[in-house]
């Protein structure tokens, strides 16, 4: 009897010690959730930072992970619809999905193929979604509600200060704009008034740059006095040889959180990459 009671007590203590699990589709939102949670939640991320979230295929283990989660935080706007279409809906999961893009308070930018999904690279849009995200966390974990709301207010203030810091960083420019390898930078560029003169691979699902696009990028660079190609860190293997062939220098920006330890650090590093490209 004593052994059974001891085992039951141990099981109860283990259950109480387990943190509620929340899942982010991409690492930037994993970083964001860790800052809001303050260690209270177990945060899992589905897409490795070096992978392409547009075409990601979730694994069976990740389906089980989502099934056991209190909340999924997705980007939305067409980036990671697979989390609903391939994980939640076909497996009849009851896990709620929060879409950041639907809660920023600003209209989405558009592309010829639909909305531009890369909203996490605009810190003020993310700041605008924090209150709603904190409420979603509060519903998923009511005991942590006060913590999430408090930390959301604090993080919003930090992002607003960061916005002012980055405006100062980007104020001095010698170049008329930037040439980008791929297309995740439009929200950041729009927020800080940086013209994107040319994007070499505008289709996020296209694997390589075409010869025609490379030639056009070289022409634009010569005409506008551009010395750099701005590229996502995840596209390093493509960016370095392409930039060399164009006679330009590649600047790599960590847009998916491969190296950043916090969300503000991620955005600040992107700002530093832009500033370097504009010198």
Please describe the topology of this protein.
Elements: H1 2-17, E1 21-24, H2 27-37, E2 42-45, H3 60-67, E3 71-74, H4 82-88, E4 97-99, E5 110-111, E6 114-115, H5 123-140, H6 145-169, E7 178-180, H7 186-191, E8 196-199, H8 211-224, E9 228-232, H9 236-246, E10 249-253, H10 263-277
Helix pairs in contact: 5-6, 6-10
Subcellular location: Cell envelope
Main location: other
Protein name: Zinc ABC transporter substrate-binding protein
Distance between the termini: 75 Å
Radius of gyration: 21 Å
* Order of neighbouring strands in the sheet with most strands: 2-1-3-4
Give the SSE string: HEHEHEHEEEHHEHEHEHEH
**Total count of domains:** 2
| Poorly predicted runs | 4-16
Strand tally is 10
| Mean of all residue-level pLDDT scores | 93
Q: Per CATH, which architecture of the largest domain?
A: 3-Layer(aba) Sandwich
Helix content class: 40-55%
Number of helices: 10
């Amino acid at each position: 009897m004593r052994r059974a009671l001891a085992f039951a007590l141990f099981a109860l203590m283990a259950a109480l010690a387990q943190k509620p699990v929340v899942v982010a589709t991409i690492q930037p939102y994993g970083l964001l959730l860790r800052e809001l949670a303050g260690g209270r939640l177990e945060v899992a991320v589905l897409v490795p930072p070096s992978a392409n979230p547009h075409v990601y295929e979730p694994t069976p283990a990740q389906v089980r992970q989502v099934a056991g989660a209190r909340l999924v935080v997705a980007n939305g706007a067409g980036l990671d619809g697979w989390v609903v279409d391939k994980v939640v809906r076909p497996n009849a999961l009851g896990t709620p999905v929060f879409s950041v893009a639907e809660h920023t308070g600003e209209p989405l930018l558009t592309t010829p193929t639909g909305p531009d999904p890369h909203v996490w690279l605009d810190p003020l849009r993310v700041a605008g979604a924090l209150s709603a995200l904190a409420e979603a966390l509060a519903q998923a974990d009511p005991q942590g509600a006060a913590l999430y709301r408090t930390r959301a207010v604090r993080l919003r203030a930090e992002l607003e200060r960061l916005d002012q810091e980055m405006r100062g960083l980007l104020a001095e420019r010698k170049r008329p704009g930037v040439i980008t390898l791929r297309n995740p930078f439009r929200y950041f560029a729009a927020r800080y008034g940086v013209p994107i003169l040319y994007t070499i691979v505008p289709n996020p699902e296209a694997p390589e740059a075409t010869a025609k696009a490379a030639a056009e990028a070289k022409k634009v660079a010569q005409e506008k006095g551009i010395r750099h190609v701005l590229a996502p860190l995840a596209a390093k293997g493509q960016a370095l040889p392409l930039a060399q062939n164009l006679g330009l220098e590649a600047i790599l920006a960590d847009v998916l959180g491969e190296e950043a330890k916090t969300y503000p650090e991620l955005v600040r590093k992107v700002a530093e990459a832009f500033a370097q490209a504009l010198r």
